[in-house]
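Handout for the seminar on molecular recognition.
Each group receives one record of this type.
Step one: identify the two inputs.
Step two: read the structure output and locate the region that could contact 2-phosphoglycolic acid.
Step three: write two sentences on what you found, then compare them with the reference statements printed after the record.
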Amino acid sequence: MNKQLRRPVIAGNWKMNKTPAETSVLINEIKPLVKDAQCGVVVCVPYTNLQAALEATAGTDIKVGAENCHWAKSGAFTGEISAEMIKSLGVAYVIIAHRERRHYSGETDLTVRDRTRAALDAGLTVILCVGELLWEREQNITMEVIGKQVKIALSGVSADELKRIIIAYEPVWAIGTGLTATAEQADEVNGAIRSLAASLFTQADADRLVIQYGGSMNAKNAGELLSMPNIDGGLIGGASLNADDFSAIVKAAN
Ligand code: PGA
């Protein structure tokens, strides 16, 4: 399934955890454990920790990401951070549309599209999250839900810009719950996302698209999930806060 065309990416999503000092400590623990990684390794940290993460990862292959960005370049948006501000620090990645932002912060498909546009314009690589609720899976509308999220987020994205998009499939019912999609369930959705990308762009573009799985991925289940033909890495929440667990997932992706 052309999996060799894609380099898997393991990204930690630290959410609202760690101070700058704790960030340096955790990254310094992770560094020696992932130094031979064949896959991409990214740590996405709170805005207040970006500088500490950049300093701690300097001279390594570990990339730093933010967990969100605003859609506007600048202006009267008290408390917000623009994509250009993030990029100007030297940060390479940004997570957009995480379920917790859709749920707690009123994120919609349209604001996701606009944030994606801003991030791409600023030169960032986007980790774009999509996923269905439990009742949506039970109603057999998983792909309708995900198809809508993907199509709206990618509207206006060029084939060239698609190279700076990673899609993270995160079934909402699996995030932070300890419930993991089976490898087959996750691969089925990732494969459907790839087919959708082929219809929106070209098959060659879709074959290059990195599509992660996220949702209670851990050191134990990562190997099976990552062996699937359409799963190109993971977006890791809880397990990314522990250097041994995170590095074990990175090793599973190698
Ligand atoms: P989890 O979180 O690994 O703790 O389930 C994943 C995510 O929210 O990105």
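Reference statements: The mean pLDDT is 97. The beta strands are 9-13, 40-44, 62-66, 93-96, 125-130, 165-169, 210-214, 233-236.
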